[in-house]
C-alpha cells in the first residue's frame, strides 16, 4: 500500500500545480489578453471662431492660432491654383490665401 499512497500523493501534487497554472491565463486566452487603447476623441473643426483671421497675412503663428480656435486637429494653407485632395476631413482647417499670402477664407474640410 505505501506505493499506492505515494502515487496518489504525486498525482494530487501534479493536479494542484496544474490547477494553479490554469488560472494564470495564457497569451492567447481571453482572460489574459490585453485590450487596445481607446481611440483618441476626434477634434471636429468649427471654422466660425477662426473667421477673424480673414484678411491677415498667412504666417505659421496665424495658422496655428486659427487651428486652435477652430478646434481642428490639423490645418493646411491652400494657395491659388494649388492641386489639393477633395476628400472632406472634419478634423482639418483650410486657410485659402491669395498670391500675396493674405488669408481670403477660413473653412473646414
Describe this structure in words.
This protein is of the alpha+beta class and 109 residues long. It has a domain at 48-108: 2-Layer Sandwich (Trypsin Inhibitor V, Chain A). The protein has helices spanning 2-22, 60-70, and strands at 74-78, 92-97, 103-108. It has a three-stranded mixed beta sheet with strand order 1-2-3, covered by helices on one side. The radius of gyration is 31 Å and the shape is elongated.
What would CATH call the homologous superfamily of the domain at 48-108?
Trypsin Inhibitor V, subunit A
Question: Can you tell me the overall shape?
Answer: elongated
Q: CATH topology of the domain at 48-108, anyone?
A: Trypsin Inhibitor V, Chain A
The amount of beta strand, in percent, is 15-25%
Helical region count? Answer: 2
List SSEs in N-to-C order.
Answer: HHEEE
Tell me the name of the CATH class of the domain at 48-108.
Alpha Beta
Query: How is the largest sheet built, in terms of strand order?
Result: 1-2-3
Number of strand segments: 3
How much helix is in the residues? Answer: 25-40%
SSE diagram, text form:
Layout lengths: L1 H21 L37 H11 L3 E5 L13 E6 L5 E6 L1
Parallel strand pairs: 1-2
Antiparallel strand pairs: 2-3
In short:
The model is unreliable at 23-29 (pLDDT under 50). Strand 2 and strand 3 (103-108) form a beta hairpin.
Key traits:
Trypsin Inhibitor V, Chain A; 109 residues
